[in-house]
Amino acid sequence: MATETLKLLYFEYKVVPGQSEMNQKTNENVESYAQFLLKPQKPIKPYICSPLNDFQEERDFLANNIFPQLNDLCSSRGTYFKAVDLSWSALKAPKSLPSDLLRQYSCLRSQHLKLCLDYVNICFPFFICMLGQTYGDFLPDNSPFMFAKATDLSNLSSVEQNLYIAAKNGYPWVLENPNCSLTEFEIIQAAFLKESQFQYFYFRTGATLLKTLDEQKEDRLPSAPPINEEEKLRIGKLKAKIISKGLPVRFYRDLHELGELIFNDWSVVIEKLYPATLMIENIDYKHSFEHFYHEEFTEKCQQFVISKESNRTFEILERFALKDVELDSNTAAAGSSLDSVLRISSLPTDKSILLLSGERGCGKSTLIANWVNYFKEKYPSMLMIPHFVGSTCESSDIMSVIHYFITELQHKNYGTQLETDVLNEDSDVLIFSLLVDVFIASISLKPCILVLDGIEELIGIYGVSGQKAKDFSWLPSSLSPHCKFIMSTVSSSLSHKSLCARPDVRTVELISPGDEETKLNIFRRHFSFPIPDPFHQSRQALRKKPNLSPLKLTILANELKECRIYRNEFQCMREYMKMVSVQELWELILKRWIEDYSWTFKPKKAKSDAVSSGEGWDGWVADALCLLCVSHCGLAEEELLQLLDMLGYRNHYKVTPVHWAAFRNATRLWVQEKPDGLLYFQHQSLRSAVEHKLLGAITPVRESSSYTFRNPANYKKTHFHQVLIRYFQQQSTFWRVYQELPWHMKMSGCWAELCDFLSSPSITDFISKIQNPSFWTRLHLVHYWNVLLETGYDASGAYLLSVAEMKADQCHKMRKRCTLSVLFVVQYCRGGLHPDGNRYSLTFCLGDLARTHPEMSGLRDAGGGGSVQEADRLPEEDEISKGG
């Protein structure tokens, strides 16, 4: 699983025992560690290429034996390994399928080449190719192919259909050599049209897998044609071309040899890209993970179109950020000047906050992200800390946002991490007010620029209401003159209204570009096909549609690329452009996604167990989007496919990797993958459309209280929370379970199960061995117990019972090495409580024991000090599901 592999960013490195040279350079190790964590680690996702209907045995062997080993190796380097395999066998439509499912298979068969070439590009520069004696499907030399006259795809062969679709959708070069096999087209795209040092070719020798030629023929799939002389000649020429280009080629005879070659080759790739220098210690280092997310978010906003409006806004932001800042000769980058800035009228001297506002979709986040990159490059010595609300689940909670700024300021100013134990306070209000006090003190130390984008999405999770988070009543009436605070929000939001009432706020309104040329440039930036776009022939269309914001233009461009494979794109565009609001546009697009990529099935359940989503709005696409919407931190692709299987999409109704790949092509810009492999909604407008149209929710999921499950209108949302409970009760990876399971138990009102989970021996044991729980980890643990206390559950009693169970049950092996008796643990827990049974001291008593009593080092060692992979697993899986 992708998310299992990023344990690195939850843990802190330690020096390898026995290496005295490294022990003597602790400071250097800490510095290199910090630099390593702050550098985004891209996943290694090679595309798997081989002739159609062949190499299935090799694919299965690699997927089950070799790729998991490579993923484990990547996990120790802070990334993950995931091979992308769009095997053709998945496209064989079973007999007697419903019409909607038959349509999906038909569309996939005709666009398979285009889909594969897309994923070759997505996976670049990583590529794995296996070749044997088969060449794959191709058009014979004597087969006439009248591409220009093709009007009905049903009259074309499967290969001709694939050539037609690929040529019309971004790959016109395939017609230059129409007699190549589909496999050779993939190789041309990966290795001959591009250059990469991470491409490997594995040739199966004549004695393939120690089978005779007759056995090979018998093993070939029934639909595969026999190997003829022309095919032998073509595959021979292809291999010769690969070798003559100097590409790395390996030869193998059996599965064992292939596995060894691939493991060795790709271990070298992993070592080259992400060299291992330090070992891992169990420390929850979630803050660095959060920093990583914001870096990644700015990278994904690079498709930015410069306009007069954006230039003007850049100048205003720059002038505001530099106001009252003394610049030395080395502050600005070489060759830069402030001439353009000086053209802006003088700003008031008492304004410490700049509020950038505009309608949803006008391009605020993209502009802010690009301005941050521009400013950092121009003024590298100035302290700037950006935070994009909504880029992760953690980035929306106001307390986590404030803590993020505090920690970043502490690190940038002093090179250390702040360890503030504010959760040991009794009062919810006092905790938040203390955090705000620390924040105010932090921004007063040295000049700094804070950027907070999307403040209308702020929420409160513990001790703070969502309204208080958004109205900024917690922010003092005046800020330190050292700090410049830049925020962005929607013009109609509560945040905008509240901040505009402050005397220290300057407002800047961002207006969607009105000139036709800028709109065309935005559209073309996201629509790169060499065909006329619908606006090229008539600029009148743009003049008649003044409400086409950058978001709408981006949506239309992306949809035009994808919908044309399934329907008349111009008719589709006409329908889209009739929509006035972004919400209406998203609802129409959701309908297309469901019709073109999805199918339904009839679950064998009682009617009361089924969830009706309304006519025309059901199917696996709708279910996947709903699951993603109600998840706490996002879901990985593998998790979503397993969840769909749980919901009943299996056997003939199974959502294969190929079906999923086609859907992801259409949604990639809007449902993006975080660095840890979890998918999330890139834009709040799509999340809102899913919540409203597919879930039927009135209140946004992330702002819902713990008691919304009682409202019958939230039945569908509660259903998906319960599905996710059942799923994560079966998982064993601690961090993913901790991120998701208690959240869904809370949102479903499963109080007994939540109490059992939090106080279970396995969870108590794992949390106790974390040397330095992150703010997020602590905040949520206290929050869940606070919710339980409100419903009448006793935290101290639950933990003491858990300790008693741990004493009676000898399942924890590390107890054999523990020199401190469990009786002392119980006494310590009792002694650690305030007279009123303070839940906070109890929550962390086991962790405090592990940190303050060296003789209890065994408490920190999962299962006796196993590997990181072992430590990240819950000791007893059944303890998680015992409440289910």
TrEMBL record:
Gene3D superfamilies named in the record: P-loop containing nucleotide triphosphate hydrolases
Region (Disordered): 857-884
UniProt feature, compositional bias: Acidic residues: 875-884
UniProtKB keywords: Repeat
One cellular component (GO) term of this entry: Cul4-RING E3 ubiquitin ligase complex
Domain Nephrocystin 3-like N-terminal stretches: 348-458
Keyword Cell membrane listed: no
DNA-binding is among the record's keywords: no
PANTHER family membership: DDB1- AND CUL4-ASSOCIATED FACTOR 12-RELATED (PTHR19860), DUF4062 DOMAIN-CONTAINING PROTEIN (PTHR19860:SF18)
Protein name per the record: Tetratricopeptide repeat protein 41
Protein encoded by which gene: LOC103266490
